[in-house]
Amino acid sequence: MSWVQFHFKCRYFLQKTNEGLTLQQAKKSFEKSSLDTLYSEKDLTGVQKKLFDKIFHLHNINDVKRALNIFSSINLAESLASSKTYKSITNKLSYLEVVTAVFITFITLYKLFVYPVFSELIQQYPALGGDFFGLIPSMWLLGITVSVLTFMFTFSYRKYIKNIDSLVINLPSKNLKLIIPKKILVEITKLNKIITIPLNKNGSRDSFYNKLDAINEMGLDESLELASLFKHQAEKLETMIWQHSKRTFGFMYSLVILVIAFYIIQIYDPIFKIGVVLG
pTM of the prediction? Predict the structure, then answer.
């Protein structure tokens, strides 16, 4: 998918409709121009195609031009798809996956090679055993469970971040609404209202529409103001998701570190006791 191609296609259609062509004529002109792959390997797909096709449901040419003008002005690529914040979060997810993979390797090697040796020593010298040494097999199973849950979390969170543009355009499903924090849902809804406002001519009127009417009455550029507003709200959404991800990462790292700490204690506890027992 390419939002850059989406914006270009909106600009092309806006130019052609300003020249007096209908949407269908502009579509035929675009197909003949070989510009459908100017910014991407293929024409629009997925959420971008779905959003663009909604323009064809508008019957008034002025509404069509308004929608094309607004869609051309709002930089969805920069605000959502190419956000540095979201890329930083995905990098942190990759780092967490590496830590988890190392953790699995560590506890498995300990269970296979270190634990049997210490078990034999403790059978000969019971004083070497700690209070929790017998829990190692159960802790290994717990560690694997935690690791699987961590990988499930990173997979789901990466998919959530990767599809943030789809969530904004289509709004989250009922199941996702149960998982996504309410404050983030509010910001997603605000962004959805901004991007879909030129398509909802018969939508219910609220304070946002009244503010938009005031902008038009003052003679301000509607598309420019909506683009600025969208960028502002997108930055607020980024901040909220970043803060939520930091809290979630903190919890996941703490969980992994606690289990690692348990294993380290079980490794060194018998070693420290050897001198006392043998002495």
Answer: 0.81
